[in-house]
Amino acid sequence: MSGSIHRRGILAAAAAVAFAATVVAAPPATARPLERGTFVDGFSFTDENFCDAGIAVEVEATQEVRFLFNSRKPGTAPYWTANVWETVVYTNVAGDSVTELTRLVDKDLAITDNGDGTLTILVLATGNTTVSDESGTAIARNPGQVRYELLIDHNGTPEDPSDDQFIDFLGLVKESTGRTDDFCAAVLPILG
Question: For this UniProt entry, which residues form the secretion signal (predicted)?
């Protein structure tokens, strides 16, 4: 798996977690927007084997998400749409860094009631990722889209997401389209 596809996978997983966090607070379904809002989240960790190169890199991310949770038809599972702005800074022990900026739309394309108390949700994430060096010069890009699936337990109420439980990230259905620069090849000369 190339580094840029891996990064999109991390972003998709973060969006899946954001989805799971908001379904707990959503009100019962009606034929109008159920909930809309904005939240800001972040995380940081040290990757001890960054890009499989055996180097330690500190990863710090912030994410702003503007979302809409909407029922398309009364009595059915509601759909999620979000605009996501994410900034990830990768810094090595010497203090060198690169910044990854991602702007994307993340939205449910199809929701399938599996008949066993679960929903399979097909999600589209489309947008642009740009990786820049410390001077602000773009060194890698990944515009395009991916599609992935989530598995959700609807607890007997597919139209009411307030009791839903995230079960699993089922994986990519469609790999990244468009230009896909190799993330690790672009950043290792700076961070390695």
Answer: 1-25
pTM of the predicted protein model: 0.72
Q: d(Cα 127, Cα 145) in Å, to the nearest integer?
A: 6
Q: What is the DSSP string of 39-91?
A: EEEEEEEEETTGGGSS--EEEEEEEEEEEEEE-SSTTS--EEEEEEEEEEEEE
As to burial, measured by CB atoms within 10 angstroms (0-12 exposed, 13-18 middle, 19+ buried), residue 95 is exposed
**How many angstroms separate the CA atoms of 30 and 4, rounded?**
39
Q: Which residue's structure tokens are 């773009």? A: 138
Block means of pLDDT (10 residues each) for the chain, 192 residues, are 38 46 43 82 96 96 94 85 96 96 95 94 95 97 94 90 91 89 95 92
